Amino acid sequence: MALVKHNNNSISAVTSVNLTQGKMTLIKEQTASSSSSISFVDGSSSVVLDNTYPIYLFKFINIHPSSSAIFSFQTSTNGGSSYGVTATTVFFRAQQTEAGSDATLAYDTNMDLAQSTGNAYLGRPVLTDNDASLCGTLHFFNLSSNTFTKHYTYNNSVMGNYCQNAFGAGYFNTTSPIDAVKFQFESGNIDSGTIKLFGIKGS
Description:
About 0% of the residues lie in helices and about 45% in strands. A hairpin with an 8-residue loop joins strand 8 and strand 9 (about 150-160).
């Protein structure tokens, strides 16, 4: 990494500094309040989901359900007019109970998709206990490509009947650009929680 050197001998004498902007930029933050779903649509409400960034990152902060349910998402290629892009996914989980029992690491065939237009899961059911929630991340890659399918990876911590690390990946089987993403619980509302969308430049 090259060092930035100024000719001035003191900071007080520096008149300008050429600094490169950070690679990760916050695009949009949305907070749920008994929301049926939360959507991020390119070109709507300052949301960017185009070729501006090769990587998009969603961060989930204390996503809490109105009723115990699975947190999930789907995508759109028509600006959110409809959701249901065909996807193939994989789902792993590491877990144990609060009592330290039933510790397992397993692939969960009940939580994956095989060329399905259903919602893609982001963890096992989240409890409605006041202190229960889901936290974690979801990465998307090259959403604006007209050539490749749209890949994603995720890693989430879930408080359900277990302490669970839900992690996996998948692809939406379309070569059309994806320009909208919608999050929801499989039943009930998103009672509270925050979702942040970031754009990541370069590699």
